[in-house]
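Forwarding these from the shared drive since the link keeps breaking.
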Amino acid sequence: MSYPDPKYVEGKGEISAEFRPANTPADLQSKNGSRTQYLATAASTGGEFGLYRVDMAPKAGGPKTHFHRSISESFFVIDGTVRLYNGESWIDGKAGDFLYVPQGGLHAFRNDSDEPASMLLLFAPGAPREEYFEKVAEVAAEWSPEQQAEFFLKHDTYWTD
């Protein structure tokens, strides 16, 4: 494997870095107290990747088993215990643990503990996941089965049950 073709060819470099201070408010606050920070979106990375910090409230649960056809998903546990499903079994992910799920890989995650948990989610290539995060609870609770199916298809999410 080699490096991809250059995207920047000017030769002198440029000032284009984007800094996000740690105290930046969460982009999304869920009713259960969980928070999501959009650290790097598909829009800000030119579609290369999306990186999100998810701070889950105690007993926050999580999505059931699913897979993606066009994006990989990686999980890096920052703090607490995140239950990670690797397609075969559930693993108690602790700080520093990492799970990579390629396209088509079955996976799920949840916080079943009595303590908060935090993780980084990395999607590659980048996809517009913000709408997914912002609407998924509403979709599950209020939308018709047909509307739900269209929403999940739009967001490359395929449920196994």
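-- next protein --
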Amino acid sequence: MTFLTIEGLTASHDGRADVLRDVSLAVGKGEVVGLIGPSGSGKSSLLRALVGLLKPRAGRVTVAGQAVDYASPASLRAARDRFAIVFQQYNLFQNMTALRNVAVAPVLVKKRSARDAEDEARRLLERVGLGARLHAYPDELSGGQQQRVAIARALALRPDILLLDEVTSALDPELVTEVLDTIRGLREEGMTMLVVSHEMAFIREVASTVVFMDAGAVVERGPPARVFDAPETARLREFTAKILRH
């Protein structure tokens, strides 16, 4: 059953050329969609548009049968309750411990009690393998650990859909695996995710559907084996030929 429906989504930055052009996509609950494509293809713009950081000028987004009106603050707030986004930059509060970084938003945004938020933050940090680092500050954590704190912080908002935007691109190669292992765990738990990544082997492994974007549009989509091994369009064949050489 389709959980997230995107129909004809079009958006631009400040009225300039469209960065998203008539994007349509259907995502089932528990599905992991891998978004691939060259730089500037619209992958990150799509995630930002879904949470209203980039305002669509045309198209329709529906979550669990409820349409999102991006012109309505109330509708946008309701949509943001469904989504959580994690960027490649961790954006942690440097003066807060890992535990506090995860617990603060549920208290301020969701109005949960401090005790409940902290209890859940502990569980989430243990879930991402950081149970022993609850009281560490960001500058005491590796890049991979900071990114896992950022993922735990997003999960603390209890989203229906997790949006991951190149969450390993700022990491040293040896730190990438620990973050990817966290995402693998979330997939096994049934989290619905849209994942933008240049880690093609990982996308092939974790995604149920791969979407190839170029110039703001969806060019091709399908199961990983077909997209990577038997691309149907010349543009995707060109892209995979380049990336699979490296």
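The first strand starts at residue 2 and ends at 12. DSSP finds nine helices and ten strands in the chain.

- D.
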